[in-house]
Design goal:
By secondary structure, this protein is of the alpha+beta class. The protein is built from 2 helices and 4 strands, in the order βαββαβ. A 4-stranded antiparallel sheet has the order 2-3-1-4, with helices on one face.
Length: about 80
């Protein structure tokens, strides 16, 4: 299963390797589809590939760390 989401990082988390960590903590493959850092905020369009329960754990990891996670409508990234 693949799931795509926008991650919004607050300034204090921009330098943290959260995507790297989630790929090692959970059985998911991460694919950064688009990213930008400006004005002290980080935006990432991320694709997660794996079993549904592992993807859910990965998303919860981001939320618990303070990252805003928003699903991408229809899982489409241009």
């Amino acid at each position: 299963m693949k799931k795509r989401a926008y991650l919004t990082y607050p300034p204090e988390l921009i330098r943290e390797p959260l995507i790297y960590n989630v790929g090692h903590l959970y059985k998911v493959v991460t694919n950064i589809r688009q990213a930008t850092v400006s004005g002290g905020i980080g935006l990432v369009a991320l694709e997660l590939d794996g079993e549904p329960d592992e993807i859910e754990k990965a998303i919860n990891f981001f939320v618990e760390k303070g990252v805003k996670v928003e699903p991408i409508e229809l899982d489409v990234v241009e």
